[in-house]
Amino acid sequence: MDAPLKQIYETSKKEFHIKPEFSSFWIPMSSAMLALQTTVNVILATVLMTEMIGMPLSITFFFVLMFLTLEMSLASPGTTASWVIAFEAFSMPTSYVGLFSTYRCLTINYSVAAVLAYNMFEQVEVANRMGAIE
Q: Read out DSSP for 5-62?
């Protein structure tokens, strides 16, 4: 992840003219908090799991899933650990985590690209609003 972060720093400064003082604060914070990749993976895997085991969905289920996912996204325990936590919270078998880990291997490049693009757009928007663009 070092190489993409260096590219984001350089692009922020050269292409978007964002002050380095702002980028040095925003980029690490944005990468660490509210991990978009973990959020999407946890929600999709948990909903797919309900279908696989025949568990009914309800408003309460989605409320708890939303709260749990937000909490894990802030803590950033990683995708695999997040699946174990979510499956345990809903009394689902954790033996399926391996299956979803295989799926994650197939989609990791797309996920990383989407997260980097999202973080860059977010930085440009916040920098623009805060006047951190030179």
A: HHHHHHHHHHTS-B-HHHHHHHHHHHHHSS-HHHHHHHHHHHHHHHHHHTPPP-HHHH
